[in-house]
Amino acid sequence: MTMRTRARTMTALLALAAMTGLAGCAPGPIIEDGPGEAGTLEVQKVNPADFAGQSLSYVYFTDGPDEAATRELIASFEEEYDVTVNLEVLPYSDLVTSVQARLSGGNAPDVVRLTGLTDFRADLLDLRTYLGEDYAEEFVDGPVKGVLGEYGEMLAVPSDLTLNGPFINVDLFNEAGVPLPDSEDPWTWDEMIDAATKVQEATDTEYAFAIDKSGHRVSTVLSQYGTALVGDDGAVLDEAKAVEALQPLVDMMADGRMPRDFWLGSGSRYEGANDIFLAQQTPVYLSGNWQVG
Known about the structure:
Blueprint: E1 3-5, H1 19-23, E2 31-33, E3 55-61, H2 66-81, E4 84-90, H3 95-104, E5 111-112, H4 128-131, H5 141-145, E6 164-168, H6 170-176, H7 189-203, E7 209-211, H8 215-224, H9 239-255, H10 260-265, H11 274-278, E8 284-288
Parallel strand pairs: 3-4, 3-5, 7-8
Antiparallel strand pairs: 1-2, 6-8
Helix pairs in contact: 6-7, 8-9
């Protein structure tokens, strides 16, 4: 059985530090690979300076402070190589459908930042063509497996390791006289909710707790109770543990400690609760490390 690598589409997950290498990716012939044939791939040398005067399209999403750093890197790249990078920032909730529409219309972006490749594997450029067979070995083993194809194709460059956890408004906790969590003796889930509730009551914030509307964030809650959406063995979540995990969220929405309308307002679409936290409407916010500048 053969596999067709579509080198005519330059879509890839951008590792910001590797922008120079990705900028050289250009449409080429369709490469036929099969099992065991990866070693025969011919690596094409690319000099970003050869693209002077040209424009590259980069589709991007963000709900954190990383956009400013990205724009700084782009400005440096543009100055060094005389290339224009058109950065298009999309809401994360629109990312997949927007990129799919562009691919269907023959208007694929040169680079796109993604959180998963499932919807695009047939359209991604095999980066081994330009970065070599050994490039994947430069990355941590776990994350890089997510960007490899069936026959070892490197379909993207992993750029981020995400970590979910609570953000704390220290000023509100101090105002309320509620002790901050101790790194040597971290909160349990119940202790975190109890502390957040005390701060809400003492400071009259609108909410006690907020969490992004995201399956990824909910998976963190589930893991605290010993279950997962899909386990390592392929088994789906434990129903009893899932109910125990999610009941505190349901209770907080019911009594107003969590923003209920936020979760209902946009249907099943992703939405970040960072604006609620930044507006000091809640003392505790469960999100991820990308929110940190």
